[in-house]
Every structure is written in C-alpha cells, then in structure tokens.
Amino acid sequence: MTDTSVFEDKKAAYYTLGCKLNFAETSTIGRSLLAQGVRSVRPREVADICVINTCSVTELADKKCRTMIRKAAREHPGSFVVVTGCYAQLSPEEIADIEGVHLVIGSEKKLDIADYLDLERPRDAGASIVRGRTKDIRTFRLSSSSDERTRHFLKVQDGCDYHCTYCTIPKARGRSRSGSIAEIVAEAERIAREGAREIVLTGVNIGDFGKGHPGEDFFALVKALDEVEGIERFRIGSIEPNLLSEEIIRYSATSRRIAPHFHIPLQSGSDEVLRLMKRRYDTALFRSRVELIRELMPHAFIGVDVIVGTRGEEERYFEECYQFLEDLPFSQLHVFSYSEREGTAALSIEHAVTPRDKHKRSQRLARLSEERLQDFYRANLGRELTVIWEHGNYDGRMMGHSENYIRVAQPYDEAAIGTTTRITPQHLDESGTFVY
C-alpha cells in the first residue's frame, strides 16, 4: 500500500482511448486519486502523474496507444507514467519497453492504481508490471464518467463470454459480470443529485447484465432505471441483437425516460460471415428487431455497427451484406475495417481480404450511411424535439442532442448549457451533420 502522504499537492493528467466504458473508468480512477489529494492538471501545467487508459480493439488502436504514451511522457517530463486498459492487459511487456513508462497495470487492478503508485521510485528504474491472468479477472467495479454536466456514462456490466472469432476483448476484460440493480440505481441517483440530465448505459455486453445476481437481467434494470427521478433520459448503449428482446423494445416505446435510440452491432449482413464470426444471431433476427423498433418508434435513431473485410468475407458475401443493409431502415452505420489480432480464431479462416478491397467496401458503406443519416435528419424537420444543450462553442454555435439523437445547433449561450428546450428544427445544415 502506498503512503498517501506522497500524493499531497500532486497533479495528474489523464488520457483515454477507445470506448465510452474506458471514459467512465478513467473518471473513476480520477476520483480515487482526488480522494488521495491528487488533483487534475490544469492547462499548461506539468503533471506529476500521467494515466493512460488504453484500447486494443484493432492494430490501429494499439498504435494510437503507443503514440499517446510517448506524447504524455513528452508533455509532462519527469512525471510518473501509468498505462492501464485493454492494451496493458494484452501486451504488458510491449508497453513496458516504451521509454518513459513506469507502471503497467492490467484490467483487474486498474481502478486500484493509487495502491501501486511508487512516486519515490527512481524514474530510470524501468517499468513494473501488475497484471493477472485473464481467467482471474472476476471483479465488477462500478464506474461512471462526470466529464460533462449534461451526459454521464454509467458502467453497468463488464467482460464478455461470447468469444467471436475476430475479437480480443474477452481476453482483455475477462468473463461477463455486472453490478446489482440496487447498486446501479443508487449510482444513477447520485449522478442525478450532481445535476446530470442524461445517462448512457455502457459495458462490454450490456444485454448480458445480471451475471452473479439471480433473478436480475437487463430488462429488469431498464425498468428500475426508468423510475429514477431527476434524470431526463437514459440511453441504452451498444446491445447485441439477440439480447435486445422484443419486451425491451416494446417497453422502451412507452417508457418515461428510455430514449428512442438504439445502437445494435450487426457486423455483417451475410449469414455465412456471421457464422464464421461465431455471432449468436442471423440476419432474419436482426431485421426483425430493427423493423419492430421502426414500427413502434418511427422516429427512433438506429445505429448499426458493421465490420468490412473480415477473414472469409468473399466478394459475394460483401454484396449480400450491402444488399441487406440497403433494404434495412437504419439511421446510421458505424463502419470498421477488420484488423487481424494475434491469438484470435479468425486467423485460421483461409480467405483474406486485401487492404484495397477493405477500403473500397468501407467507402461504399460510408456513402450509404451518409445518405441514410441525412434522410433521417430531414424526416425530423418540422417535428418538435426535446434538446439538452451541451458544452462547447463551435464558431458561435452550441450543440445539443434530441431524445432520438439528432444533433441540433443554436447560437451559443453559456447559460443554456445543461438546460432542456422544446424546439422544432426547420433546416439541415449544408454539412448534413446537424439541424437548426
């Protein structure tokens, strides 16, 4: 255990890469260090401690992490550099070899960083590694971000039991586990008392909520959160289509606080590729979920994740995917190019897609997504929307999001940050990225 007196008057800089779950966990790390007397660094100050929370979902993510680590060490010379997160769990020795790194800490102990900070250790002593085996990652630790006054990200679940052939996340975060409904509701109530207006539910596989808590599941959590006073809306984060049950969709359509906003990973519109990926649904089930949402909530935002160029995605299978999406009433695509990851089962699949073909396929889907998003925005012109205004001054404009995740602009007014307005947008900006 570190002597807490060494933390007095110390300053920390925080860097986060990857998913919203990482942002929630970084905020929790920051609060734990603040309790020890370590405040966040102010602009142009040099930090005593740098914490980099990493992602490792793709090879590019690993590269960005290495760049960020070097950047942090350069911007804060003499600081104690800590690297944690998924990349730290998967490749600790690789990180430890980076000049300027002093501590690499894996997934199980990432929220206990204060216990491992040896600030009196010589800076040239090299990096120490605190990392357990993946099978020993068992603890659920509640986390939430508080970086914005209007929107918080609340971690309700961690880990994954699915083992899709292309994915390293189960190795980085361990088995699926979650908090209790009582624990999550209590945290939502605390966030409400701080003045937050919106909470996004996040995790690795949030639909799998309830592991370790008999009689609890994600639907029960949604219903409990719908009763939390003070929060205007809850958004369901990315949820597997096989776990987005019809009862959750039907409940959301008439709920008090559950936003008409769904983020559903498809990954491929080809049943053969879904089989190769070892996904737990087919295109028929996915279509049924999207069509039910559209039937019950015609103006709901439906975001869809797609991976292009995965092993086994022959040209005909990509065309099946494209045709499936062309006929699907979604609002926006989130397109990712497949990245080969060491130790994944996908590497045993014979057909590899060239980088050129990956790029072409990605561009086709990006154009389809852009068309659909603008169509979705146009369909909401003239409709009354409820907008929560957010931080940020964009050339004299401020932005907010409606309940169905439409980005709305108005002239900047600092007093409006965190307030709610009922408005009827009339115009789509030339960029096609917001209405006003």
TrEMBL record:
Alphabetical list of Gene3D superfamilies matching this protein: Methylthiotransferase, N-terminal domain (3.40.50.12160), tm_1862 like domain (3.80.30.20)
Domain (MTTase N-terminal): residue spans on this chain: 10-122
Keywords: 4Fe-4S, Cytoplasm, Iron, Iron-sulfur, Metal-binding, S-adenosyl-L-methionine, Transferase, tRNA processing
Limits of the Radical SAM core domain: 146-375
Cytoplasm recorded as keyword: yes
Signal peptide coordinates: none
InterPro entries with a match to the protein in the record: Elp3/MiaA/NifB-like_rSAM, Methylthiotransferase, Methylthiotransferase_CS, Methylthiotransferase_N, Methylthiotransferase_N_sf, MiaB-like_bact, rSAM, rSAM_horseshoe
Repeat among keywords: no
Cofactor(s) listed: [4Fe-4S] cluster
Any one GO molecular function term: metal ion binding
NCBIfam families reported in the protein's UniProt record: MiaB-like-C, MiaB/RimO family radical SAM methylthiotransferase
Protein name: tRNA methylthiotransferase YqeV
